[in-house]
Every structure is written in C-alpha cells, then in structure tokens.
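anyone seen this seq b4? input:
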Amino acid sequence: MHIRDILNRRRPSFSFEFFPPKTAAGAEDLYRTIVELEPFDPSFVSVTYGAGGSTREMTHDLVLRIKQTTSIPPVPHLTCVGHKEEEIAELLRRYADAGVCNILALRGDPPRDWPDYDWSDCDFRYASDLVAFIRRFNESGAHPDPRGFGIGVAGFPEGHPSTPNRLVELDHMKAKIDAGADYICTQLFFDNHDFFDYRDRCRLRGIEVPIIAGIMPVTSLSSMGRMAELAAGARFPAKLLRALDRAKGDAAAVEKVGIHYAAQQCAELLDNEVDGIHFYTLNKSKATREIYSSLGLASLK
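predicted toks r here
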C-alpha cells in the first residue's frame, strides 16, 4: 500500500522501526517481536540501512520477509552514502519487483572507518538528490503502482547536527519535499515543545506533508548513551533526568520511568493532533506494547 493511502486510512498513524539483526538467532528474536506487535495493526514498519550500505542485503531480506509473512507494509531505509546511481536503481528495481511500495530516503552517515569520506565524489550528496532520483524512477513506470514508490524523509525537531543555521535547515527540508517526498518522520526527541515548534516552523515554510513524531522510550540507563549517539546529541530534559535519578539505578524502576515518560509524550502528541507516532523499538516489543495499552490503543485493529 502506498504511503499516501496508509496515512489517509488512519490519522494519526502508528508505526515501528526495526534494524536487521546480524545473526540467525537475532533474526528469529526480531521476528517474534514483529509477531507480538502485529495485532496492534501498525500502519507500517520501517527497516534501517547500515552506514554506507553495510546492511543492504540484510535490510532487503528482512523487508521481504515482513511483506511475505505479515500484513504490515514494510518501508526500507535507503541512504546516499557510498552508492552510485546504478546501485540505487538496482535496489529500487528489486523492491518494485517484490511489490514494496515505500522508501525512506536518507542522507545517512559514512561508516566510522571512513573518516575522510568525500561527499563531493558521491552521486547523491543530499537526501533531496536521492528523493529526486526515486521520483525519476517512479516516472519511468518501473513500479507496478502508477504512482511509484511513496517517499519518506527525516526531520530533526532539535535541529540537524551538521546544519546549525535553522533557516538553512528548513530550506533543505523544503528541497526534499519539493523533490517529491510524501511525508516526514522525525528523529527521536524527549521534549514535545521541540516537536510542536518544528511542526509550526515547517508549516510556516510551506511544508504541508504529514509530519510523524519519532518516539524512543528510555528502557535502561545504558540505552541513553546509544540514544544520544543515534540522534546525534538528543537533549534529555531535566524532568526526565530527575525521574530517572529517583530510580537509583534500579533497572526495573528505570524501565517503568522511561515507559511512563514516553506514554505521557504520546498522550500529549495525540491531544495536539499529531499526524502519526513512530516508535523506535530497538527490536523489542515490551515498551511499545505497554505504551499502547496505557493510551487505550490496544484495540485499534
């Protein structure tokens, strides 16, 4: 199903993100997680793409397994880093042939062992270049859906780390939308005011596509560091830090605090007519299931 149809079918949308495991055992654990979440009738699930295309085949295989064995529309990530046009075209053909209908187009990060990566030597320097290429693929008629792939892009409520000028950052976002993007899925954030302000600034800039809020509950103190790294400097509000401090390092208490905080975020987002909520699951289902239940969303299907 094309993302436009998905988002028109249910507003707000509810979706999840997974990353491809590196082992067969990890793949089976993840598949159990997906099965546990399927009864919640997610609008779609996205599958990440490792730095420099390092998980290209694993991403492809997981996407096809989700499509072939579940009722959930999969949305594979695709990044600019390290790819030539012919490689991207081949991936798009494979997904089109498999009936995959949507792509999340990202600039991406070079692998850590590519410290001197030269963007000027890349066929796709910006996410807008990748969006425009996918749009040209769509116009070629190579996809079974006459509209081609639905295209998502990333948004950054706290600001993109490589673009400190927030006006320029919005110009870049507008370029992605003008190139053909259908929706925005934001990076994780912990203060809803950042999201609401970002949404308002997008609307003032003439960006009218749906903006889906990215939420990742803190489930352990060790995961906070990973969150900050994944989000390139996510801001942890003092309110959250105080609540975690009261847990005194007790793992179960920390998890409860994180889930409760994320549930409060989601409730406020829903009260303020968010277009959708996207859960960064870290391949686990417990936190997302509990948030759903606390919001009265368990009976959505």
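The first strand starts at residue 13 and ends at 18. Strands lie at 13-18, 44-47, 74-79, 102-106, 150-155, 183-188, 211-215, 276-280. kinda curious what u guys think
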